[in-house]
Batch of 2 targets.
Target 1
Amino acid sequence: MHKQRIILILLAAVLLAPVISYGQTVVPASKQDELIAVLKSGDATRQEKIAACRLLTFIATKKAVPTLAALLADEEMNHMARYALEPIKDPSVDIALLEALGKLKGKPLVGVIGSLGVRGETRAVKPMAKMLKSNDAMVAQAAARSLGNIGDAAAAKALSSALSGSSGDTKLAICEGCGASIVSQVLLQRIEASLGEVADPLHTALSRYCPSCRLPFAWSAGLHSSQHEGKM
């Protein structure tokens, strides 16, 4: 009971410390160690740990990564742990997420797949390409959307290759991934060099399976515009 009171007082102090500036919450960077301690505490409640993760979103550094990564396997804390990890500008986050990608299952795995897509981690493309054929539909669909977010040539090729053998909601997710990869910043930078290898198969696949799709960024430049519109 005494420890719980200490944790509550600590969180209250952190929550009261921020000031609102131009609509943004500012959390003192000096509070990071205290928030990490809350996450490590066996006496902290789930709500207290959620609050700590939310505040770490503003100030977390490499130091917080191991503690946050340890929560990825916890189905109840996975979301908030990733919420705090995603903004951290340190490669240790990507390493932790990649390690979790090979260990987790179910909803925690789906969440990690999503976070790797948010961070644009190209090293996740190969394992995610295999996940497009997963028996777990949630995993396959999450992989498709994240590959679209990563959007490099390898991700686009994996998506277009998987499209013909897919069905139902998974096919729809792959189509979404294809569209996202076409217009992603990374793929657009390479579109000229990879036009024959990537853009044509994607265009063919999307025209066949997604008659309502439009890819304005890629084709507005005149790339296959008449061909694409004709097939729609």
Target 2
Amino acid sequence: MYCNTWLRTLSLSFTCLTLSAACLWQAPATQAATVEKAEVASLGHFKADGSHNNNPNTLTGRIAGDLSNRSYFAFNLQDVIGTITAAEVSLTVATYEGAGTSKTMTIHDVSTPFVDLGIWYHSSQNNLTQGASIYDDLGGGTQYGTLTVPNNSLTVTASLNSALADLNSAAGNGHFIFGLDLLNPSVSSSDYVLFSETLEPGIHTLSLTVEPAATPEPQSIILMAIALAVVVFLARRRRAVTATVPAA
């Protein structure tokens, strides 16, 4: 009789465990998606020959009689926890130079580590070999999309949804960096955009839609805890009863 009772109770406990596991597996996130703002952590530019100014200048394009320049923007995503499902960048324009009512730039991924960008850009010396390699990187990687800069706009925006894989890779543990390259700059006259060089909040931002990590429902946790407690109790009781039964 005791054996039958123990088996029935064990079966009930197993059912509770199974239901709890199913609830845990299917439990939705307990919080809605949020929009988080990431501020720019570093920015700068490199010229085609690898030279640069050791200041936060973001010249993108070409000054008359000079070589082309590409810029970069880096955002710290170490505090972003969850899955990024949408992204948009907003940049503040300081100077628009050249003909035309707008300019188009391509947005590229950057493989140069954040630390290396800082070392080579903000150092007092120009390492032309390293700088030329970074210049190539700022416009030679995977293209995320384009950025249109009208001649009368102070702020411009672009979607970075094509960069979600790289954004999520950086979320929680690093920096997300992209490069800008002006399409077909004029070779006979100045043709460039200079973005604001300040790092103050709100000047250059990355808006991220973040889905929080799914968390189990409280009732599922309680069910599983009860089921586990019953199984442990019955196992100990069975061992105790078995030990007191005299041998035949």
